[in-house]
Hints:
This protein is an alpha+beta fold. Among the domains are: 245 residues, Gyrase A, domain 2 (2-Layer Sandwich), CATH 3.30.1360.120; 234 residues, no CATH class. 30% of the residues lie in helices and 18% in strands. The strands form six sheets. It has a six-stranded mixed beta sheet with strand order 14-15-16-10-3-17. A six-stranded antiparallel beta sheet has the order 5-6-7-8-4-9. It has a six-stranded antiparallel barrel with strand order 18-23-22-19-24-25. Helix 1 crosses helix 11. The relative contact order is 0.11.
Amino acid sequence: MDKFWGFYLPVGLHGSGKGSRALLKWYKQGSVVHDASYYSAVQLEGSEEALSSILSMLLVPSMIDHPEDICQRLLSGKIYGRAMLHHARQDGFDAICPVTYMWRPLHQHNNVGTKDKGADENMETESSSQLPQLWIWMHPSAFREGLDCLKLACQNMTNETGIMIGCVSLDGQLANLEVMGSRAFQLLQKILHPIALSVEDSVELNTGSATAYTNGCEIKPKNNLENEDCFSSGAAVLLTVVDPRSSCHKKSLAAPAANLANDQCGSMEDKSEENYAGNLLTKEEVLSTLQSKYDSNASLSNCKDLWDASNGIHPPVEEHKLCLEKHQKSLDFFRLKDTSSTKFASVDGHFSRFCPILLLRNADEADRLTGWSIILPISWVKAFWIPLISGGAHAIGLREKHWIACDVGLPYFPSDFPDCNAYSRSMEIKASAVDKTLENCPSATRPFEIPIQLPWNSKWFSFSRGAGEGNEMDFSSNLTCSADLVGKLSDTLLVSNSVYSEVLVARTSRMLTSFLKEISSDNLLLFPKGLDRPTLSHLMMKEAKISASNLATLTCDRRLCYVRVVLHAFKEGVFDEGAVVCAPCLSDITLLKSRPEDNEGLQVPHAFVGSYVKKLPSGKWDFHMPMDPAAREAYRPPVGFVTSGFVRGSKKPGAVAFCEAVLLAHLRFEQWSWMPSKKRRKEVFVLVRNLRSTAYRLALATIVLERQEEDVESL
């Protein structure tokens, strides 16, 4: 356990290996559960047009970027959406954090049963209840920044249109339990027993079955979790479930439901005569009536919708009372009397045996992630946590969750979001902890210092002598030009304050295409999915030689744009967090692809390992060009960094990295120009070197935006 973002959170298991192999086995063959209640939601309330306008200003991608059918499903609350929250959507800078947003289901907006109130009160209640509501979930490291951004946007919208938009923090009211793994759905089937309390038009009474109809009101225990395939990716389902600690199952719940229907048949018929024709009972009225008649068997009171959590939801029955009930039932079963204890009293109305939840299916576009999220009132966490663990789920912490994200190829916040302030703050905290550890080490055994805060905005990423004139340009050699030019650039870096600016990461295909048009390089060999451009496979297999028009002139003052890539070692190597991704020469690819076992491959001198990056007087880090001829010969220019390293025990280990988009396109041009069309690959060959290692390892970089239109999923 350690303190993060104001919470004491589990980090992971102790030990040298820390259990990564066991974790992956649990995930692939069983289930794991993570308490993500440190996430918080912000509730927006206002007109649909105003809320949609705010989302279009702040989210990338917004609902307007989705097809019409997806927009309708989002607005109806059937699915939830994911996006990046920005201060300013137009330029792509000022990213805050990835968010999950969901609309309140349309059928929940209406509120009936206010007939006894005055006409004016009824109109006011109906008007307020019909205002659409929206939840936006954020990570705690960026919650304050995101909340301020949303409040400012709502205030500006109110000033412009005169329409009041509510923006309320739900921090400390809702919890989030994440269940992941191949058997996550089977675990949910064990502990979640939904009840259906719906209103039917027909009048039917069936006392011989598990379903009972009383005056048009259907009361039945219903298992909505019969088939996982019925839930689409991103589905959001509102349920009311029985307390998981209860021993009631579908069969045992059937008889009480039927008896409840019989007991209430007469009272409901009398009540229906008083109401006008067609007026139906609300769920709250049904529950309160059933509670008063059948309190000892089923506490149905306060069974509100989860969206009304801000108004208060009754907590679960206390554990010791449940134990007393079970004890009393055991005695009754054996027809014994407990003379030593006081008589058992039924639970009062301040507790509930039913809990409203929101069930979310978590799945990425490639279906690599298998998991569900249970959103529930914060007071019910313990009541769900213990049955989940008893049902076979393994509890995991932050480190294990990061491993799962890396194994399935998803980014993890904030480690894999270098364009967010939360990333910078987390790296500062990590760097201060590392510095403190190094200070306690003896100087004789103290390792050389490496950067924790990586130089994402270094001008080395944008600097070059310029594009080659011919088709056989060796891009990697352009940065190893002359000592005078390198020295001039180094002097510029030391005195310039513009070296470190905001980081731009393209998270959607449209965003990447917009950047390429901005720098007049939309003909580069980058193929964002879903746009009207030549496909990657078509151009890759084209027999004609790649034209030099597929290059862009590299200048020292150009804007940098990163894209997320997944790295896989070509033959061997383990890539750690913070490793630098470099541009290989064509000879490097040939050497490392056909390297015999007794050959050490491409190495850098030991003296150069600690000086590849140097600390500037400002305290920032930047790349350093060596003056030693042997080190200069082994120098390879950087194109990006690894943010999440390999997970030990993974069958196909992959690392998450971010590389500069234009440099990747130049590398692909160089490699495609060198290879015949039949040997070209969709991936880009790169070199990866851990900052404490002397060896370059050959890797294949897969650009995520060439496989999917959006890269906003996170774990």
